[in-house]
């Protein structure tokens, strides 16, 4: 037994098992404590809320929505709105990029200057500011 503990590979494997076991024990203890605290306060967990009425409405939706619709319907609306706006943004970005690219390679000095100015302005503005404005 002592010779096994002196072996570096065996010792490393034992330490890894001990480490993973202690992490798993902490996660399990956290889950048990959270479930007990939720039960003490009368809070239920799960996905039953998806079938309850939301009581609020969205401003923009490609699908019909009322305040009485369940949460799962609003999640679906959010996914569809995200895909729609992402597609619109992709198309508009392609159009703007093509126009600016053609302007930068144009033989017209004014068009080339405008394309270069556009690229230089947006290249030097941090992306987070472009998202906000």
Describe this structure in words.
The structure is a single chain. With 133 residues, the chain is an all-alpha fold. The protein has 2 domains: 45 residues; 84 residues, no CATH class. Helices cover 71% and strands 0% of the residues. The protein has 5 helices and no strands. The longest helix is centred in the first third of the chain and has 34 residues.
Radius of gyration: 29 Å
The low-confidence runs, each spanning 5 or more residues with pLDDT under 50, are none
Strand content: under 5%
| Percent helix range | over 70%
List the helices and strands and how they pair.
Blueprint: H1 2-6, H2 8-41, H3 71-104, H4 109-123, H5 127-132
Provide a brief overview of the structure.
By secondary structure, this protein is an all-alpha fold.
